[in-house]
Design goal:
With 135 residues, this protein is mostly helical. The protein has one domain: Sufe protein. Chain: A, CATH 3.90.1010. 52% of the residues lie in helices and 10% in strands. The chain has 8 helices and 2 strands; from the N terminus they run ααββαααααα. The chain has a two-stranded antiparallel sheet with strand order 1-2. The chain starts with a helix and ends with a helix.
């Protein structure tokens, strides 16, 4: 999996169409989420596309998220968000500046507002999940 820093450097030099392609490619690289986990309970509210996020806990206590969307660009945005928190300890996730890590991608200006409106809800769900697992 790529690091968010490496990705932001690559993204910075791309033309808008290539940025879309990069996001779509990132979405394709997401670990497959079983259809059985795509339920109302795992659905992220407030997203224009359907987005599902399902947390799992590793043996060492780190959180691993499965996620999917029915829209290719949205799936890429999810992949970006997950790059900032995937396989981290819950405490580290609650302290992570996810929004700051996403700033270099300037998603609000690169994508339509209905593509980005659910990002805060995804981030909030991830933080709330991590908070439940902090001791």
């Amino acid at each position: 999996m790529r690091s968010i820093d490496d990705l932001s450097e690559e993204y910075e030099f791309l033309e808008p169409d290539d940025r879309y392609r990069l996001l779509i490619e990132l979405g394709r690289e997401l670990e497959p989420m079983p259809d059985a986990l795509k339920t109302d309970a795992t659905l992220v509210r407030g997203c224009s596309a359907a987005v599902w996020v399902y947390p799992t806990v590793r043996d060492d206590g780190r959180l691993h998220f499965l996620a999917d969307s029915n829209a290719a660009i949205t799936k890429g945005i999810i992949a970006l968000v997950l790059l900032t928190v995937q396989d981290q300890a819950p405490q580290k996730i609650t302290e992570c500046d996810i929004e700051g890590a996403l700033d270099p991608f300037d998603l609000k200006n690169q994508l339509s507002s209905n593509r980005t409106q659910g990002i805060p809800n995804m981030i909030a769900l991830i933080r709330e999940t991590a908070a439940r697992f902090t001791g």
